[in-house]
Write a structure and sequence with these properties.
- This protein is of the alpha+beta class and about 270 residues long.
- The chain folds into 2 domains: about 1-145, Probable tRNA modification gtpase trme, domain 1 (Gyrase A, domain 2), CATH 3.30.1360; about 205-265, Beta Barrel (Elongation Factor Tu (Ef-tu), domain 3).
- It is built from 6 helices and 15 strands.
- The chain has a 6-stranded antiparallel barrel. Strands 3-4-5-2-6 form a 5-stranded antiparallel beta sheet, with helices on one face.
- The longest helix is centred in the first third of the chain and has 12 residues, at about 1-15.
- It is globular, with a radius of gyration of 19 Å.
- The model is unreliable at about 1-15 (pLDDT under 50).
- One of its GO terms (biological process) is iron-sulfur cluster assembly.
- This is Folate-binding protein YgfZ.
- Keywords: Transit peptide.
- InterPro entries: CAF17_C, GCVT_N, TrmE/GcvT-like, YgfZ/GCV_T_CS, YgfZ/GcvT.
């Protein structure tokens, strides 16, 4: 056992470990915690096992993306990994839905870490359910050897959207590729916003998707139009020098010369986005 733990330690130390200060944790427990979350989130939680991590979202009744979150199974409930800036608002919304359910919701001081950049394995690590190449997440004190910006650059290089790209109550989760990143379980029962989400998938009415774009120089400002000639083809979201996410109209980007802020941009469609 000691030798196995040693190998795990070496594996962890060979990759990047970043403290995600932008994330915070809500502990959910009580006899009704599974049924409570099951009726709210896009992800299946009835079968969530201790030590397992799933990705999902909390939607508005109209099916718009309110918050992304990770659900980590524990021995007596689950940890919700949410945006730190919105944790209090999420707690208020969850409390609004609680009614008579026997559920306890607590903001806890558990730090969130991302481990990435290599083969991640070890005790206490939760494989990121979105993509294997995103690495893993860990909850609890850990020594960091990278910063959150390095993790965000890694995520963007893989073409995976993040919270800075979708804002609140403006985007459908399918537009942010939650259906392709294991963020929606279409086989589970009803959840808040389920009708609109299922209809979009069933009818194939997906007109817009988030994809990375590449360009020369600094990223255009958030909201800058992406043009296909004179036609609007989408808008730039969050980014950095040379690369950004964009919400794009699928019918206007094929074989088109695209520009943003007067500069040529190119869509770099990731392999996982089919």
């Amino acid at each position: 056992m000691a030798a196995a733990r040693g190998r795990d330690y070496i594996a962890v130390m060979s990759i990047a470990v970043a403290h995600l200060a932008s994330r915070a944790v809500i502990a959910v427990s009580g006899p009704d915690w599974r049924s409570f979350l099951q009726g709210l989130l896009t992800q299946e939680v009835e079968t969530l096992a201790p030590g397992e991590l799933r990705f999902g979202a909390l939607l508005t009744p109209q099916g718009k993306l309110l918050q992304d979150l990770f659900i980590a199974g524990t021995e007596d409930g689950a940890l919700l990994d949410v945006a730190a800036a919105d944790r209090d608002a999420i707690l208020r919304r969850l409390s609004m839905y609680r009614l008579r359910a026997k559920v306890t919701l607590d903001a806890v001081d558990t730090p969130v870490f991302a481990l990435f950049g290599g083969k991640v394995a070890g005790e206490g690590l939760h494989a990121d359910p979105r993509l294997p190449t995103l690495g893993a997440r860990a909850y609890g004190a850990r020594e960091a050897n990278a910063d959150e910006d390095a993790y965000e650059a890694h995520r963007l290089a893989l073409g995976v959207p993040g919270p800075a790209d979708w804002g609140s109550e403006t985007t459908y989760p399918i537009e942010a590729n939650f259906d392709l990143l294991a963020g929606i379980d279409f086989k589970k029962g009803c959840f808040v916003g389920q009708e609109t989400t299922s209809r979009m998938k069933r009818r194939g009415t997906i007109k817009n998707r988030m994809m990375p774009i590449v360009f020369e120089g600094p990223a255009p400002a958030f909201g800058t139009e992406v043009l296909a000639g004179a036609l609007r083809a989408g808008e730039v979201l969050a980014g950095r020098d040379g690369r950004a996410m964009a919400l794009l109209r699928l019918d206007r980007i094929a074989d088109a010369d695209l520009t943003a802020d007067g500069r040529l941009v190119r869509v770099e469609r990731p392999d996982w986005l089919v």
